[in-house]
Structures are given as C-alpha cells and as structure tokens.
Amino acid sequence: MVNICCIGAGYVGGPSSAVIAYQCHDVNVTIVDLNQARIDAWNSDKLPIYEPGLEEIVFSRRGKNLFFSTDVDQAIIDADLIFVSVNTPTKKSGMGAGMAADLAYIETATRRIAQVATTSKVVIEKSTVPCRTAQSMRTILEANSNKDIRFDILSNPEFLAEGTAISDLTKPDRVLIGCLQTPEGFAAQKKLVDIYTRWIPQERVITMNLWSSELSKLAANALLAQRISSINALSAICEATGADVDEVAYACGTDSRIGPKFLKASVGFGGSCFQKDILNLVYLSEQLFLPEVAAYWKSVVTMNEYQKMRFTHRIVRTLFNTVTHKRIALLGFAFKKDTGDTRESAAITLCSYLIQEHAHIAIYDPKVSAKQIKMDLTEPGVGTNEETVDKHVEVCESAYEACAGADALVICTEWDEFKMNQLDYQKIFDSMQKPAFIFDGRLILDGPKLREIGFRVETIGKSV
Ligand code: NAI
C-alpha cells in the first residue's frame, strides 16, 4: 500500500488529495494541517470549504483510505510521497513586500520533513512557488538529513479552479510533473505518474524539467488574468463608444486562434491566486534585471484595479454623484460563484470605496458568512475599521432582504441564484426606492427585461 501525506488542508490540499483517495482505494492518503479547527471541520459533517461534489468524495472515503489529522510528524514518517500544499501568500513586509511570495510556510514544512523523516521520501511541491524554489527545498532537505535517507523533489503545480475543483481534478486538461533530469529524478517522477494515470489518460500527464514546471504555473495564471484584463480594458472602450463587450468577446472568442474562455468582462478578477502569482512573476522579472518584462505583467494587475475603481465611480456618478446614506444592495461577496472563498474578492474593494463615500451597504452572499465579510472588511489595507464597518455594513439572509428599501442593487458575484429566472426582479423592484438602479458587474442579467420592469440598468461594457 502506498502512503501519501499532504501537508496543508486548504482549498488545494483538501480536494486534490481527497480525489487521489477516491480514485485509488489502495493508496492511503493523510491530509495534515497545523490548524486544529480546519482539521476538525474536515472530520465533521460541515467541511471547511464549499466545493460542488466535494462532500460526496470526502464522505465516501473518509476513515477508509482518507484521513485528516494534526499529527504532521506521524504522517511524514509513514509517507512514501509527501505533497507540500501550504499557502504561499504575497509577502507583507521586508524584501519584496507586496510582490514576492512568502515562502516561510514552505520552508517550515520542508524543515519538518527533514527533521522527522526516517526513510526516503519523494517530496512534491504542489503549492504555487517562484521558479527555482525546489532548489531551496532540496538544499534544506539535504542539509538536514542523514546519508541513509534520500529526498527527491518533484514539481506538480495544481491547476484546479475553485468552484469546479472536483471536475478539474477528475478530468484535468493536463497534469504537470517536473523533475530533475537525473535517473533518480525520473524514478521519482514515475512514482507520481503511476498514481495519476490510474484515472487520467497518459497523454495528459506531462513530464518536464523542474523549472519549466514551476514557471508554467505562474505563466498559466498570468495568461489567464491577462485575458480578463484585456477584455476589461475593451469594456471601457465599449462603454464610451456604444459597442457591446459581450458581442466583442463573442466575435473574438469564435476565432479558433483566440478561443472563448476567460473573455467575460466583469468588475475585475479576484481570488487568492491571480494577483499574487502575477506579482510573483513581476518580482522574479525584476530580480532577473528584466524591468520591461516586469512592467508588462504588472499592467495586468493595474488594469484590474482600474476596473474596480471605474465600476465604483460609475455607481456613484449614476446615483447623482452621491451615495451618502443611500442603501446599496450588494449581491455576492465571494470572488466568484460556487465558492465561499473571498480572498482578493472585487467586492471587498467595492465596499471599501463605497464606505468611504458613506453609503450603507446591505450584503448577501449564499456561501459567505457575516463573520467572514466583517473580517475581510476590517483587514489591514482595506482602509476601514470595525466601528465603520458596523455602522455602514449590514449582512442579510437573502437577496430580497438586502434589496428592500435599497436605492441600487449591485451584482458582484455571478451566482446562478441571482439570474433572471431565479430571482423575482419585479418583487425586488417593488421593494426598492425609486428610481431603482441595477449595476450588473458580471453581465448576468437581461438589461431590456429589467428596463421593462422599470429599473435603470448600468452594465459593464455596455453604454445602455
Ligand atoms: P490555504 O490557505 O487554503 O491552505 C493552506 C493550508 O496550509 C492552511 O490550512 C495552513 O494552516 C496550512 N499550513 C501552512 N503551513 C503549514 C505547515 N508548516 N504544516 C502544516 N500545515 C500548514 O491555501 P490554498 O488556497 O490551498 O493554496 C495552497 C497553495 O496552492 C498556494 O501556493 C496557492 O497559490 C496554490 N494554489 C491555489 C489554488 C486555489 O484555487 N486556491 C489553485 C492552485 C494553486
């Protein structure tokens, strides 16, 4: 029986390792984390993260070949393969603050492996890291281990997207496995290839050198975010000219050289990865003395900030240049639909701007708790404090409650339940102040139908 340990029971470690246990019943998978509350939740009926299809997988294998524990050392000792799936946030202070990835969690986990391992291990870098991080991990492992134990390092970046994690993991476009180009490296690589090919066709399991694999993850995220910033830049031109961004995206997306995905204009991208990984690439470019390359990628993030600000300005401008004491219903707080994750959500920036304008914000999100919303809005850097948030923000139990008495409704997250066929917009209109405004930040609503009801509608990338 192969024993796998995954260090880090987060959005990546939890689902990706649970899927291995689900697909390979003869592989023992133990997911460990230092966060007791998170592990308790993984062992309970209410999992710590929301992801369609995840419960079914976890509940069917938990206690059989899938285990969640805080006993990191024992799991390391027992494992043949160890995934390191810890967080790699942007550094908040010191060298590279605001840009470089904070590798402290990677280093702690790596040192722990070196300290407690009693047999040879394959250590797999699953977290998103700057190119050549595996070299540092190798140095730490080799310096701290004895001569009878061998550590081989693989890079196996994760491409799952929150909200579709389970289908991304069960039917991935590709899996990347990078290794040192040595006989030992290839042998380690084969062990992981043998696991993935149990359910993924061989041709989708791509092997390459370590550094290409590490850089490919940053490159993929940078290219995806760049598409969003490109269509968002075009949305500003659409609003000023009368062109319709959905039509432009369709026209471009049907060109087979371009393709349709990630061409949806919006209030801006969020999530824990895009901004962090691009900034990481920017920092890497600067360190490599490539300022033009750094500036090129940086502009993707700058455009995203501009889009969020532009949308807020449009709200304020349309509401007769003032939102002071006006009730604004904000529908959706997660960074995208089908997840409860709010990291870097555009809604946070929007709320921060609207609070500065003294608006009263009524927020509803189907999967984000009031506690989480308040925590996000009082984070350092958001520019507000607990007292202001308590005064200006109300978290509601339904879209109807948020909209009652509101001057404007703002769609921030594209949840299906906000679509025209799911919410009764006539009922919402009747309960709002008049004129009743809708700002569609996700292009999910039918403008003409809403206008028929009586709404004034403002949509990203459309001038009417
Ligand atoms: P997360 O913050 O949800 O989970 C990381 C977990 O690691 C936390 O629960 C933390 O307590 C734990 N941890 C940190 N240090 C530890 C240690 N020394 N020992 C044991 N546990 C430790 O982070 P998430 O979202 O799962 O991301 C993990 C990595 O995967 C990051 O590098 C991220 O960039 C990357 N990634 C994330 C994706 C996403 O959609 N969230 C997608 C693809 C990659």
From TrEMBL:
Location of the UDP-glucose/GDP-mannose dehydrogenase C-terminal domain: 329-447
Record keywords: NAD, Oxidoreductase
Gene Ontology MF annotations: NAD binding; UDP-glucose 6-dehydrogenase activity
This enzyme's EC code(s): 1.1.1.22
Enzyme class: oxidoreductase
InterPro entries, sorted: 6-PGluconate_DH-like_C_sf, NAD(P)-bd_dom_sf, UDP-Glc/GDP-Man, UDP-Glc/GDP-Man_DH_C, UDP-Glc/GDP-Man_DH_C_sf, UDP-Glc/GDP-Man_DH_dimer, UDP-Glc/GDP-Man_DH_N, UDPglc_DH_euk
GO biological process: glycosaminoglycan biosynthetic process; UDP-glucuronate biosynthetic process
UniProt entry tagged with the keyword NAD: yes
Family: Belongs to the UDP-glucose/GDP-mannose dehydrogenase family.
Protein name: UDP-glucose 6-dehydrogenase
Organism (species): Linnemannia elongata AG-77
